[in-house]
Amino acid sequence: MTNIGFGIDIGGSGIKGARVNLDDGEFIGERAKIATPKPATPDAVAEVVAEILRQEEWDGPVGIALPSVIREQVALSAANIDPSWIGTNVHELFHRHLGEDREISVLNDADAAGLAEVSFGEPAAAQGAVIFLTFGTGIGSAFLTEGRLFPNSELGHLIVDGEEAEWLASSAAKDREELSFKKWAKRVSKVLAEYERLFSPTAFVVGGGISRDHERWVPHLTIDTPVIPAELRNRAGIVGAAMAVSTHLAP
Ligand code: BGC
Q1: What is the CA(115)–ligand 1 centre distance, in A?
Q2: What distance in Å separates the CA atoms of residue 53 and residue 62, rounded to the nearest whole number?
Q3: Span from the CA of 166 to the centroid of ligand 1 (angstroms)
Q4: What is the rounded average pLDDT of the residues 219-223?
Q5: Does the keyword Kinase apply (predicted)?
Q6: For the segment 128-183, what is each residue's pLDDT rounded down to a tens digit?
Q7: Which of 105, 49, 108 shows the shortest CA–CA distance to 78?
Q8: Nearest protein CA to atom 4 of ligand 1, as residue
Q9: Where residue 17 falls among pLDDT bands split at 50, 70, 90?
Q10: Using CA atoms, how far apart are residues 43 and 31, in angstroms rounded to an integer?
Q11: Strand locations in 59-174 (E)
Q12: What is the Cα 161 distance to its own chain's centre?
């Protein structure tokens, strides 16, 4: 029998969800997507999540990935979502919208993606002391030691050269400043060099939509640590969220 879960990934522009085959990390059926409400307040977002689950006729456990620090199921930050998330008890919020009896896990989106990569993606993600990064609207990070997660690392907000790393080197920064891959890779090198200096990982695994184009920028990076493109890319957040709830992981 197939082991099936459901994951939701909440992003600045879209809220996406899919059934996930937990044995191989593949989606089952189409991914559902609804635009993120504006403003992206906790109740408005939770209502969209409820709508996706209704559409998909899923009443089982659900894992939810959010661009926020989640400690003991309370959101402690809100980058690219409404500031009213800060201090929100996400356990209480999502149970109110999705049903009191439903099993729900909420975790940081990059942490979810990192976990998915460990199980179903690039084998290097599961070995050694790895820093997994997602490049998108922000820079998300997951600290992985032999595939186990230390949650909420938030390396996108480390100050590098007087700026937040994600302001300098997210893929949104590349778009905003219309940087070539080569110019942008210089910025990424600067940020990775700082992570390298502080944490000495055995490897960086780089994900997010822009990892699809890894051949255009990874070869330009100038750091010593190996940089390995992730395999799962944008699918990872949903898959990792579904995995988290199935393993009762709720940071
Ligand atoms: C947020 C992180 C998130 C990352 C990727 C950052 O701005 O602070 O929590 O993981 O963006 O979405």
Answers
A1: 15
A2: 9
A3: 9
A4: 97
A5: yes
A6: 999 999 999 999 999 999 999 999 999 999 999 999 999 999 999 999 999 999 99
A7: 108
A8: 140
A9: very high
A10: 22
A11: 62-66, 70-71, 74-75, 104-108, 129-135, 139-145, 148-150, 159-160, 163-164
A12: 25
Q: How far is the CA of 202 from the centre of ligand 1 (A)?
A: 23
Query: Which two three-digit tokens encode residue 187?
Result: 């910025």
> Atom 11 of ligand 1 has which residue's CA nearest to it?
138
Strands 62-66 and 27-35: unpaired
Q: Whose CA is nearest to atom 6 of ligand 1?
A: 138
Q: Which atom of ligand 1 lies nearest, measured to the CA of 134?
A: 5
Ligand 1 first shell, C-beta below 6 A: 67-68, 77, 79-80, 108-110, 134, 136, 138, 140, 154, 156, 166
The CA distance from 25 to 126, in Å, is: 15
Domains and CATH numbers, the chain: 4-108 (3.30.420.40), 122-231 (3.30.420.40)
| Distance set, CA 169 to CA 136, 163, 172 (Å) | 9, 10, 8
* Residue 67 φ/ψ, nearest 5 degrees: -80, 65
Taking phi over 0 as left and psi of -120 to 50 as alpha, with beta for the rest, 20 belongs to beta
20 and 242 Cβ atoms separated by less than 8 Å: yes
**Structure-token pair, residue 86:** 């800060």
Closest ligand 1 atom, CA of 152? 9
H or E segment to which residue 215 belongs: helix 214-217
Burial category of 99 from C-beta neighbours within 10 Å (exposed 0-12, middle 13-18, buried 19 and up):
middle
Contacts of 96 (CB under 8 A, 6+ apart): 46
